[in-house]
Amino acid sequence: MLSKGPAKKVTIYLNEDTHYHLSSLHDAVMTFLMHKGVSGATATRAVSGFGAHRVMHTVKVEVLADHLPIIIEFVETPDRVEEILPTLYDMVTDGLIEVQDTTVVKIAQKDRRPEPKPPHERTVGPARLIRVFLGEADRWHDEHLYDAILKKLRMMDISGATIYRGILGYGHKGHTHKQGLLHISHDLPIMISIVESPGKVEEAIKAIEEMLGDGLIVISDVEMIRLVRGTPGRKEEPC
User: Fold this and answer.
1) Integer Cα distance of 119 and 236 in angstroms
2) What share of the chain is helix, strand, coil (3-state, %, to 5)?
3) From the first residue on, what is the mean pLDDT of each consecutive set of 10 residues in the chain (239 residues)?
4) Of 71, 79, 13, nearest in space to 41 by CA
5) Strand (E) positions, 114-229?
6) What is the bridge-based pairing of β-strands 5-15 and 95-104?
7) Dist. CA 53–CA 200, nearest whole Å
8) Is residue 97 domain-shared with residue 141, that is, in the same domain?
9) Residue 51: helix, strand or coil by DSSP?
């Protein structure tokens, strides 16, 4: 297993159209390295290059594009490189193999094992649903009114709110607001939906009314089922 300290970096230069048995050579080399347990390898495709044959291969010329250089690189322990190098020597019949001394200074690998999911925290009980209807062009000081309302609700520790942008609508003034050409409009309908416990609803409504100019607030009694999945090892704070 690769660890911090002295290591060997192996670089293999070959051509994209070089074959090994029934597959391309670069595929065969990558498969061999994976089966041998090499810590990791990368194959990159160059955009141009030339080798001992003194022919320039480039993506700019279609007839030469199939012969572009492929570079395979990997870093391993000196013992592992010594073990697999003879096979690579036999496989690469047209190309170049380079080995350099190097030093591994850090190995960072994320743990890919899925963490166990904690059980849901389930809260059931009566709640109030608030819907606030306003226009996209409505302002509060120097910002959109819907942005300002959302910020205010967060400061009041309201459990959550969602903003919906309509595509067509009209209000009590009878003006139709709709999306125009190129999906551009400056005053489409906006709806803010809030679900909260009855004890905090009046406070939220009062704050919204102070900010709202033309608009509509609708309140409904609902039954709430709230599911919260916490993070393992972390205690969720009550809302």
Assistant:
1) 12
2) 25, 40, 35
3) 89 89 90 92 81 60 63 94 94 92 85 69 89 92 93 90 85 57 64 91 93 92 83 45
4) 71
5) 120-135, 139-140, 143-144, 161-165, 168-170, 176-178, 189-196, 216-229
6) antiparallel
7) 79
8) no
9) coil
Gap between the Cα atoms of 140 and 127, Å rounded: 28
**Rounded to a whole number, what is the distance in angstroms from the first to the last CA of the chain?**
47
Q: Nearest to residue 25, comparing CAs of 82, 87, 74, 83?
A: 87
Segments forming the whole domain that contains residue 55: 5-104
d(CA 208, CA 147): 12
Domain for residue 115, yes or no? no
Residue 91 has what DSSP assignment?
Answer: H
Neighbouring C-alpha atoms within 13 Å toward the C-beta of 233? 2
Instruction: Using DSSP bridges, classify how beta strands 48-49 and 57-58 pair: parallel, antiparallel or unpaired.
Output: antiparallel
Q: Buried b vs exposed e over 16-48: b needs ≥16 C-beta within 10 Å? A: bebebeeebbbebbbebbeeeebbebebeeeee
Q: How far is CA 238 from the centre of its chain?
A: 29
- The CA distance from 13 to 26, in Å, is 9
Nearest by Cα to 124 from 11, 236, 210, 227 = 227
Same-domain status, 11 and 97: yes
| CB within 8 Å of 107: residues ≥ 6 apart | 2, 3, 4
Q: What CATH number is given to the structural domain containing 150? A: 3.30.70.120
